[in-house]
Request: fold
Amino acid sequence: MSTAGFAAGSNARIRVSAALFRRPWLRGGLLLSGPLAWFVLIYLAALVVLFISSLWSVDSFTGNLVHTWTLDNFKTLVEVDTYRTIALRTIGIAAAVTVTDAILALPFAFFAVRIAPKRLQGVLFVAVLIPLWSSYLVRVYVWRLILAKDGVLNWALGQVGLGSLNIGYSNWAMWIVFSYIWLPFMILPIWSAIERVPDSYIEASADLGARGWRTFRTVLFPLILPGIAAGSIFTFSLTLGDYITPTLVGGAGSDFIGNVVYQNVGVASNVPFAAAFATAPLVVMGVYLLIARRMGAFEAL
Amino acid sequence: MRLAKIDWVLGVVLAAMVVAVSACGSSSSSSSSANLPTKIGAGEGQLNLVAWEGYAEPKWVKPYEAKTGCKVHAKYAGSSDEMVTLMRQGGGGQYDMVSASGDASLRLIRGGEVAPMNVDLVPEWKNFFPQLQSPSHNTVDGKHYGISLQWGPNTLLYNAKSVTPAPTSWSVIYSGQYKGQVTVPANPIQIADAALYLSRTKPSLGISDPYELTEAQLNAAGELLKQQKPLIKKYWALASDEIELFKNGDTVIGAAWPYQYSQLKGDKEPVEQIIPKEGATGWADTWMLSAHAKHPNCAYEWVNWVSSPKVQAEQATTYGETPVNEKACGEMEKIEKGSCSVYHANAPASYFDSIKFWKTPVAECGNGQNDCMDYSKWQQKWTEVTG
Reply:
């Protein structure tokens, strides 16, 4: 009996594996179904739900959802100036932060990879990563203390007789803090992009008579551009979706898209409107990723 | 084959949509009109509160925990809107009680988030000032949706070193005198402060109640706030934000609660507060019981605890507000001589009547007409102004 059972069992197993062998697509499908289901259910479904709820509305007094289809939320977004201002401010600062970080990260990464001795290189690498070990909130709060009117910055400026700056709680403060916070995410992709350029290219360029600047412009820069594009995806998208830094260091009129979303979900309980506004950064990021892909950012990641 | 795969993906997405729609559709509010408890049973071991900052201080929470065995978890909210949202989240069972102000309480009652309470189980209730036993902001159709707690005005807070001469009017936060050094709450109800100021300075607008504004009146208040925006350093969300702004010298004047004043005073900052000549808005808070409370016995123990004269006095003197229990006056004198009259615990009813207490703006005006702007309009206006 036990041998019969064993035989039946192994027969079935052989049949299944034979069937799988004959149909490679089925094999692949089964292997992929787990991750794919995860992707579809957790990731895409969340986006679908987000979009569906943006077409609902909220009863203004009781705060309950009203499940009738309406485009009012999107209409409000387009018609009210404030939301356009907020969207443009968000995109503008995200772009400014990205450019700033690229300008700061490029010479730093170049020095670390090409010029610094091996030991210093290790030290610099750790120095880039160390801020990431402390909490985001702590770092933002520290900046708040630095930029405050009676803060460290104005104290230092006063010591050298330069008067004082009044940039605490403003868009300038947000620009500085964002640039600081996301800088490592720009340095690392550029670092690895520069590392990948073979020394022989630089030597060949020099042999052909190109000076330093020309070598950088025509040989090095095109090769590390994908790295910059990859880093910019991080700095741009992280700034675009943030709402904590605007809350903590922003002033009057420093709201980001994220702040409006947060206020509508956490404070006003108007999830449909929040969902409608949340589709704006999705669209912006989609366009941005398409551009970044053309620049080869995905190969550099 | 390719087509089949796409069909399959579409099918899953559609199924997800259907599930999402039906899940959201089934959540409906049920206002529980269950019969009231007649006695307080054994405590459940914990109590989850949504409270204003400073309403769950260790000074009176610790003895309560020791006495009842109910461990208190307090979540501080920065605005009435946030309180309402917190009480609604996740079906409402997350929190047992909320210290709702008058502009949140009716929304919570109508939305079915809070349940009636039995005042007979709160013996101290009989000692409350008459106007706070069954006020219209927490008592509907004779049902008590909570027990009154404390009340007070929103004040004008200023740094006495930088702001001279001492202000007497709200005009200092609307004129350019202290440009870039002003702070006001990040809260749509702040529109009422502007409306109150306009009701005195521009009588032609005909504002009689700062919470009942027609479209023209709301627009006028919005205009005033838009002019004010360049003067503002930051709209504060939490009381602790404003305290930091004053400490670091970023702001020297602003709209505040007495809590910020007493905290800054305690840290020896040179601040003063006044109720300007135009009058002030204010709040009257109520501990309300969630309709889905998981720890109702601890909740009843809590309202009994905070209604007692001693705790009423402790909270009043810590926060700088007025107790609802008439007997708190004597206890306040024990804590700090003269504090009973400083915090108006023995003030006549006319003082109570002089404050314009927060309430939820609704379409229905006091005059029987329906042309007032409801709260969602206020929120929109506020976003337009501050965004």
About this structure: DSSP finds 14 helices and two strands in chain A.
